[in-house]
TrEMBL record:
Oligomer status and interactors: Homodimer.
Subcellular location: Cytoplasm
Parent-record interval covered: 253 to 619 of 619
Main location as per UniProt: cytoplasm
Name the UniProt record assigns to this protein: Glutamine--fructose-6-phosphate aminotransferase [isomerizing]
Gene name of this polypeptide: glmS_1
Record organism: Arthrobacter humicola
UniProt key word Cytoplasm: yes
Length: 367
């Protein structure tokens, strides 16, 4: 049931603090030590890994792109992220020292399953990050890390995405702790911060009313651009995907640094641009660059909606959707939420069925 919410999607968005708590449960000690006892892949096998390839589709692939930043920084292992349907058609370099991570909410996405089969044929070790216990992808993989988000009914992925990101962060912390890689101070701080994320997710949800009002004022927009840097880039792409699939509004997500290499030609008076702000304290250089990007957009009459930390000076934006402060690699767990609310509210303002968007199925079981 919808538990008093207007849709399954609204319910699932509001379940996210609890869902993330379940992903962390029993895996993150109070001392910050991560244990993934149930993984099914030995530490010996994980210690031999020289390369990671993440395969996934859609929202799960954006989760994978976020994971790349944490895995490379903390584990010092090169990471590629491939759309599962592209993977086996490009002669990928995969061998018995490659860990292939397949991320899938349903565990039944045919494109991702075929990538898993191909990777195993090449001798890779395959780890599934999956929400559905006992699904085909985790059954065919060497090991699995379940997200335990609970059933996701709405077609658009929300709590599954947040828990996929949480699970990959746990995995990155685990590998770093086991292999002794990365900066130990940063890694233990990140582990402690992760433990407090469910409470911060809850506080972002408290801003839903402001986002609904903003969306109601935008029900007639025909195009929205989303830009971000660093992990804000995949978050921007996820925000654009949510808006396309729920509100049927043309949207594009791209790296903010690309703006001047072409897309700035799209900025005309009234063009809405959602900007995922880097943290002013944790990423001052990227924050400053994003402030000048906002100036570029404003100078051409664009309408800027910033998603940024409380107290961010980016108030040159026309609207600021706030999230609590966080370290850069954990920020997507917070900045993705206003974008989910924005897409759902805009779709609602247009009178659309957000649980069952046209032309889409919950699980894509054809290639
Ligand atoms: C978007 C969405 C899809 C799925 C994609 C992969 O909101 O839900 O993009 O993320 O189809 O599905 P799974 O995770 O089941 O493999």
């Amino acid at each position: 049931t919808k538990d008093g919410h207007s849709s399954f999607m609204a319910k699932e968005i509001h379940e996210q603090p609890e869902a993330v708590r379940r992903t962390l449960s029993g895996r993150l000690g109070s001392d910050g030590a991560v244990s993934l006892g149930e993984l099914g892949i030995s530490d010996k096998a994980l210690a031999r890994i020289q390369k990671i390839v993440i395969v996934a589709c859609g929202t799960a692939s954006y989760g994978g792109q976020i994971a790349k930043y944490a895995l490379e920084r903390w584990c010092r292992i090169p990471v590629e992220v491939d759309l599962a349907h592209e993977f086996r058609y490009r002669s990928p370099l995969v061998d018995d020292r490659t860990l292939v991570i397949a991320i899938s909410q349903s565990g039944e996405t045919m494109d991702t399953l075929m990538a898993v089969r191909y990777a195993r044929e090449q001798g890779a070790t395959v780890l599934a990050i999956c929400n559905t216990v006992g699904a085909t992808i985790p059954r065919e993989a060497d090991g699995v890390l379940y997200t335990h988000a609970g059933p996701e009914v709405a077609v658009a992925s929300t709590k599954a995405f947040l828990t996929q990101v949480t699970a990959t962060l746990l995995l990155a912390l685990y590998l770093a702790q086991m292999r002794g890689s990365g900066d130990p101070t940063e890694i233990s701080a990140a582990a402690r911060e992760l433990a407090g994320i469910p409470g911060r997710v809850q506080s972002v949800l408290a801003g839903a009313g402001q986002i609904e009002a903003l969306a109601a004022s935008m029900a007639d927009v025909t195009s929205v651009l989303f830009i971000g840097r660093h992990v804000g880039h995949p978050v921007a792409m996820e925000g654009a995907l949510k808006l396309k699939e729920l509100a049927y509004i043309h949207a594009e997500g791209f790296a903010a640094g690309e703006l001047k290499h072409g897309p700035i030609a799209l900025i005309e008076p009234g063009q809405a641009v959602v900007v995922i702000m880097p943290s002013p304290a944790a990423s001052p250089v990227l924050h400053a660059k994003m402030m000048s990007t906002i100036q570029e957009i404003k100078a051409r009459g664009g309408r800027v909606i910033a998603v940024g930390e409380e107290g961010d000076a980016a108030t040159t934006a026309d609207a600021l959707l706030t999230v609590p402060a966080s370290s850069p690699l954990l920020a997507p767990l917070l900045t993705a939420i206003p974008l989910q609310l924005f897409a759902a509210s805009l779709a609602g303002a247009k009178g659309l069925d957000i649980d069952q968007p046209r032309n889409l199925a919950k699980s894509v079981t054809v290639e």
